[in-house]
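Handout, section B. The chain below has 355 residues.
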Amino acid sequence: MPVKKDKDIINVGIVGAGGIAEGAHMPGYLATPGAKVIAVCDVVKERAEKFADRFGIPKTNVFTDYNKLVAMDELDAVSVCTPNNFHAGPTVAAFEAGKHVLCEKPIAGNAVDGQAMVDAAKKAKKILQIGLHIRFTPHGKALKKIVESGELGQIYYARAVTMRRRGIPSWGAFVQKKMSGAGPLVDIGVHELDFIVWLMGCPKPIGAAGHTYTMFGNRKDVAVGDWGMWDADHYDVEDFAVGYINFENDISATLETSWAAHIGNPGPSFILGDKGGLQTSPVLLLQDKNGAMVDITPHISGSNEDPHTTEVKAFIKAIKEGLPSPVPGEQALEITKIFDAVMKSSKTGAMVSIK
């Protein structure tokens, strides 16, 4: 039975009814005035049906084929919550059907798929927003203002680090390359690298080198931590990655990310400029003042709203008001190009050019 279209309501369909849809996207839409989720799709029919029952979605709007979901005339937008390597299909189909798209991070499992998504969005003249929610935190917004104020001066180097001593996902398809494309590089590394590059104003990457290691994931003789045992028998992604990136304007950066490593506190991510340095957590601005070195701890305040909800609200606002994408696909694509280059460099041992 078709859902009657209200011109003041943005009707949304969700593709992929797993944890990120249930725990982040759906709560975001429920908290957003003027948005309503009216359809859901998942390759596992029972999972889609359970999702629909929980959130009051009509049984007639439950699908296992995303093409049928995006073909609904009543839909205005789609949230893509599938594994990384399956972002491109529903996203491109949604654009071809004239819908806007909020896609979970990373943009895709590889840059080829990501480029297809960006191209489809441009052709359709619709919004492609990528779910990089750290940009929407009070912490993220405050650091962005500090950098944009010029407090750091000429930026020349940054470090993006996100390390877990033991935190290999024990659920979903995270540990299989055919599903996710890579391991912590694209799972948690994407958040920190995107955040740092965004703070710097999204300089264009021109080359990267790096190395990936699998030291823990395919073993059963190591401590598993609080998350429980992962699928070691089918583990075929890295559990640690390190990268060196060159950007335009003589800026460089390093990346360190892991799901498992013998490490305690690896130290914060930071950005260096000729007038100041900025550590991200805890936030600390380091400068010279009146001939002395000073450390400034900014007071950060803001809403306690879940940043996933804030990003959903920004998505709906952009649709209603005809605004640009709050997190453009083009920016997320550059991050995935870096990841592709790091993985290629790990195999060749050489710096890889990024175009």
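Note. The domain at 10-134+307-324 is CATH 3.40.50.720 (Rossmann fold). Compare this with the example in section A.
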